[in-house]
Amino acid sequence: MTELALDIQGLDVAIAGTPILRKVTLQLPQGSMAGLIGRNGAGKTTLMRAVMGLLPSRSATLACAGESMAQLPAHTRAEHGISYLPEDRRLIPSLTVEENILLPAWANGLGDARRRLAWIYELIPELLEHRERKALQLSGGQQKLVALARALMPGRKLLLLDEPFEGVAPVLSRRLTEVIAKLRTEGLTVLLSESDDKHSADLVDRIFRIERGVVRESSATH
């Protein structure tokens, strides 16, 4: 039986009393890559934030690699190898590229941070060239690469990528696609959200459609 990197069953999320997600069921086998496709406001970010423990939720099952996450505080998700790339990047402008990448390691006391950093620089070598630059000095697309690298620092099992291509110039969108495609060979499980499947169609194994807080698996791409 294939181990599930992410197992969500019957997930409900309400914000200020308004239901946002309704009985969401979504399962990702270990090492798979899936797209979460839906228009703005459909609930993509809410779902990812609920998995990260950043929003209160109710569910029958919310587990990563067979371990229940439902009652764990949000700050412990990184310790369990789960990481999140928010749409708005949320880098600290005054810190350097390398400092931004290392932030999760400092916050979570990761003992192998330097080894992990070397792997990230091998995966995204252009960041090594920019490691001493302030995040504020980078373009939007370059900042997305830094934010992805930061997510990779603790993200050893599951990566949640929220609109990674949004607002990025075409040349850097292609570069992001290349980097994300390489993650498949690293055994990581990836859930990637987009408003359409323009960028993700050739990356993912399966597609989930979300509309008005309801998720349905629509297809396997290959």
TrEMBL record:
<protein>
    <submittedName>
        <fullName>Branched-chain amino acid transport system ATP-binding protein</fullName>
    </submittedName>
</protein>
<dbReference type="GO" id="GO:0015807">
    <property type="term" value="P:L-amino acid transport"/>
</dbReference>
<dbReference type="InterPro" id="IPR003439">
    <property type="entry name" value="ABC_transporter-like_ATP-bd"/>
</dbReference>
<keyword id="KW-0029">Amino-acid transport</keyword>
<dbReference type="GO" id="GO:0015658">
    <property type="term" value="F:branched-chain amino acid transmembrane transporter activity"/>
</dbReference>
<comment type="similarity">
    <text>Belongs to the ABC transporter superfamily.</text>
</comment>
<dbReference type="InterPro" id="IPR027417">
    <property type="entry name" value="P-loop_NTPase"/>
</dbReference>
<keyword id="KW-0067">ATP-binding</keyword>
<dbReference type="Pfam" id="PF00005">
    <property type="entry name" value="ABC_tran"/>
</dbReference>
<feature type="domain" description="ABC transporter">
    <location>
        <begin position="6"/>
        <end position="222"/>
    </location>
</feature>
<dbReference type="InterPro" id="IPR017871">
    <property type="entry name" value="ABC_transporter-like_CS"/>
</dbReference>
<keyword id="KW-1003">Cell membrane</keyword>
<keyword id="KW-0547">Nucleotide-binding</keyword>
<dbReference type="InterPro" id="IPR052156">
    <property type="entry name" value="BCAA_Transport_ATP-bd_LivF"/>
</dbReference>
<dbReference type="GO" id="GO:0016887">
    <property type="term" value="F:ATP hydrolysis activity"/>
</dbReference>
<keyword id="KW-0813">Transport</keyword>
<dbReference type="GO" id="GO:0005524">
    <property type="term" value="F:ATP binding"/>
</dbReference>
<dbReference type="InterPro" id="IPR003593">
    <property type="entry name" value="AAA+_ATPase"/>
</dbReference>
<keyword id="KW-0472">Membrane</keyword>
